[in-house]
Amino acid sequence: MSRLLVFQHVAAEPLGTLDPLIRRRGHRIRFKNFERHPDAQLNVDRYRGLIVLGGPMNVEDHPQRAHLRNEMRAIETMLAQGKPVLGICLGAQLLAHVLGAPVRRNPVQEIGWYPLHKTAAGMDDPVLAPLQPATPVFQWHGCRFEIPQSATHLATSADCAQQAFRYGDNAYGFQFHLEMDQPLIERWLANPAYREELASSGLLHDEATIRTQTQQHIAAMQQQADAVFNNFLDLAGRPQRRHTLPSREWV
Question: Fewer CB under 10 Å: which end of the chain, C or N?
Fold first, then answer.
């Protein structure tokens, strides 16, 4: 039985729909929860793949948050070993930074539902194949990654062009949240810190709008998300191809 490693930053941002999907496929999950254990030691050698979840902190916080530096070292090791890596939101930003790309504030926050458009490369990507060429996805972020020079740009949105990339054959960064279901969205909308972020964002839509749009879009997104995640999890069984990566300034 293969084991997958999951980096979780806060309790409010779990694996979501990915959790039962991973377990149904027979994988064991090992969580490293940095909210509870910020000094956790990270040895990735025993794991077949890595999933790095989102969180309210940013890559630029790594001087004050040692676990972010440790996570980036672990991501670098997984990439060098040729193992599958999936970064979601903050996780995608950490992955991009490891690959040498800057992470910056986006001109506007994306909170709620936004149309996602696949690039020409995204149309041919084996993991993103189940996503429609243009489909609403759930977002909650204020920063964005640049696409690493060595990576392939897979998806865009009107307010943030850098939505998804692939590095090599089996490392993916998603700025958006395919792992959401309706209860998890409600959990975020009830969270005081998240509510304050939405209220201060300057966006024209509010919680009621997000709830209405969730009713409209969640079923279609979940159906596509399960297929995308299944494609990614298929990579955990592929032969490993090692990569040599340069050291970064966070080391």
Answer: N
How many alpha carbons lie under 13 Å from residue 161 in its C-beta half-sphere? Answer: 4
Mark whether 160 is an active-site residue: no
111: its two tokens: 């909170």
pLDDT of residue 239: 42
The one-letter amino acid at 47: Y
Name the catalytic one among 9, 71, 89, 141: 89
User: Would you list the DSSP string of 106-164?
Assistant: EEEEEEEEEEEEE-HHHHT-TTTTTS-SEEEEEEEEEEEEPPPTTEEEEEE-SS-S--E
Average pLDDT over residues 2-10: 94
Whether residue 147 contacts residue 153, with contact meaning beta carbons closer than 8 Å, is answered with: yes
Residue 213 to residues 2, 17, 59, 114, 185: CA-CA distances in angstroms?
A: 37, 19, 30, 10, 11
Among 124, 134, 181, which residue's Cα sits nearest to residue 157? 134
Residue 251: the pLDDT is: 57
How far apart are the two ends of the chain, measured CA to CA in Å?
Answer: 33
Q: Rounded distance, CA 90 to CA 64, Å?
A: 16
187-199 pLDDT, tens digit each = 999 999 999 999 9
Of 62, 67, 153, 177, the catalytic one is 177
Q: Establish whether 146 is a catalytic residue.
A: no
For 135, phi and psi rounded to 5 degrees? -150, 145
